[in-house]
Design goal:
mainly beta, single chain, 0% helix, three-stranded parallel β-sheet, Leucine-rich repeat, LRR (right-handed beta-alpha superhelix)
């Protein structure tokens, strides 16, 4: 499952998506005001760097089977 349909929520500050069987972190690039992202207990295996989200202060990814963290 991917994260879809969030592009219109540009003023969103907190996004809670815990326990939703999400497999990929994509589709968040338009959320420029996002400060907190909760992805606890999903199925994410790779943590994509979210460089475009300049206001993001907290990302919670515990409980995911992450096997590789890419470095830029």
């Amino acid at each position: 499952m991917e994260i879809l349909g969030l592009h219109q929520l540009q003023n969103l500050k907190n996004l809670l998506l815990h326990s939703n069987q999400i497999t990929e972190i994509k589709g968040l690039d338009d959320l420029q005001n996002l400060r907190e992202l909760n992805l606890i207990n999903n199925r994410i295996t790779h943590k994509k760097v979210l460089d475009g989200l300049k206001n993001l202060k907290t990302i919670m990814i515990d409980g995911n089977p992450i096997v590789k963290i890419p470095h830029n």
